[in-house]
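Note to self: keep these together.
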Amino acid sequence: MSETMPPEFWQAVEQFNQGEFYACHDTLEALWLEEVDPLRRFYQGILQIAVACYHLSNLNWRGAAILLGEGMNRLRDYQPTYGGIEVTHLLEQSATLLQQLQALGPENVESLRQQLQANQVGEEAIALSETQPAPCWPQIVLVAPS
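Structure:
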């Protein structure tokens, strides 16, 4: 399936992994609008996770929580890999972020965003607790060539 993915998809993956979540949304939305299922639903799942991260970066706790859940639900059927990416990996990272978001609650969204941004630029990441790892933005991992 990866050889059939359009160049715009790989552009969106790069944007996502660089934390350019709104740009990723725009790129994927253009593909999503022209596509049919099952690829349409796949694009939509990634798009929703990207928008969730965008909402979180803008302190919109509710929007982030809702769209993380919706995006994850859309991508579940594409595991373990689809379209040249490790879907299971993206879902696991997204689930961890959603758990951290829910555990901290809306009143602590600024703290979570600061920790995510610090981790993104390579500063020392601080774990939320002994059982919760340091927060990090989800990353889209490409399927290793066989």
